[in-house]
UniProtKB/TrEMBL annotation:
One of its GO terms (cellular component) is cell outer membrane. PANTHER family: TETRATRICOPEPTIDE REPEAT PROTEIN 6, UDP-N-ACETYLGLUCOSAMINE--PEPTIDE N-ACETYLGLUCOSAMINYLTRANSFERASE SPINDLY-RELATED. Residues 1-25 form the signal peptide. InterPro entries: Peptidase_S1_PA, Peptidase_S1_PA_chymotrypsin, TPR-like_helical_dom_sf, TPR_rpt, Ycf3. The keyword Signal applies. It comes from the Bacteria. Pfam families: TPR_16 (PF13432), Trypsin_2 (PF13365). GO terms for biological process: receptor-mediated virion attachment to host cell. TPR repeats lie at residues 308-341, 342-375. Keywords: Repeat, Signal, TPR repeat. Residues 238-268 are annotated as: Disordered. This is Tetratricopeptide repeat protein.
Amino acid sequence: MQVSKVCLALAGWVVAVVLPLPVRAAENSVAVGQLAKEVTVLIEGMGNGSGVIIQRQGQTYTLLTAKHVISSPDVYEIVTARGHRYDLDLQAIQSFSQVDLAIVTFQSTAEYPVAPLGNSDQAVEGMPVYVAGFPGQASTIRRSVYNFTQGHLTAQASEPQADGYALIYTNHTLPGMSGGPVFNEAGQVIGIHGQADGRYQQQDPGNPQVFIKSGFNLGIPINTFLALAPDSIASAAHSLSPSAEPTPPESAVSQRPEAAPASPRLVSTRPPAVTNLFLQAVDHYQRGDLQAAMQAVQSAIRQTPDFAQAYAIRGNIRLIRQDYPGALTDFSQALSLDQTLVSAYMGQGLAQSRLGNREAAIAAYTEVIQLNPNYGLAHYNRGVALLNSGNAEAALTDLQAATDIALQENNPADYERAQEATQIAARQCRQSIRTLCDR
């Protein structure tokens, strides 16, 4: 079967794990994951969100979440990892002006651990970070499944953007994880996740199904919250030593997180002004203001010419504007500075595909999959490119992998797309894959 007009999923910026973790870091991630699962909760209402337990006083538990998760008038329920449900006390919601944060409470006689709060000022660019939360449900996936993802801190700005967002990280997140905790390797909460890489930018006004994903996640530093928090919470957090190890739940005692240094390759010495420009570029990009995003990233590159991620986001902007040669130049420059930058390989694949260079596109997606075998969107894109090249058997393998990964991640949109593409590749229906363009 030859499909002459096949659109690829445009996702220039989805990154989960870009490097194999050393043994010690892998052990830490298991321990942090066990702790995170005990303290992260699902907030059910008109739309799902997440939160983290940060205090217990008697039978009253306090959660920290993103304000937008509970901003709509509704009846909300707290669902813990153990499956217990509690009413959220609407009268006890405390929000903060100009910051996308809120604290809420629920009552329970059960024993739940409390997440230790870290010092976000000590977070350095390149350090491993973890995000926990519950992606939303849909018709194909009818329950929210806990997700725990690994990534790296890309930047921490000294001048936060709107609503207090200042952390940028590469973790693969999904809608519904907003309000969930961002952990360091010691299992301490250093931020609250709030703006996911699920924001899309339309590439072609004539084809509303073609999008490009920003791929960057934004979070609010925990120190921003502590500066506004009630004294009982702030004083308890400040009483902890900055280097203290958290006490994980009993099930995780044998896998206690240990502090591990960030890889020297990943630690940046960028001037704060450049980091602030990069945050501005990401924020403008996610809000759809490509002109402002381009101005900010251009300034960042002029001041720091070896900023790989900046070249990659400029490449994405050029990709959206259909300047494919310019985009390829930027992605190549990004990869010359960082050969593990998954987003740049994805961008290369997308640009090559739009130029009709299928073999080059397949090669780029293969690089992504070698770096991160569980990157479903790369399998999807490569599968479509392989199908267009006449290799239906290999395409089916990739598309089935994309389907399986989306199901595991509780990602209904990607699941439906990959499942439909698999049926087309297997000649189970006559629909054109052209209608499956998404990101």
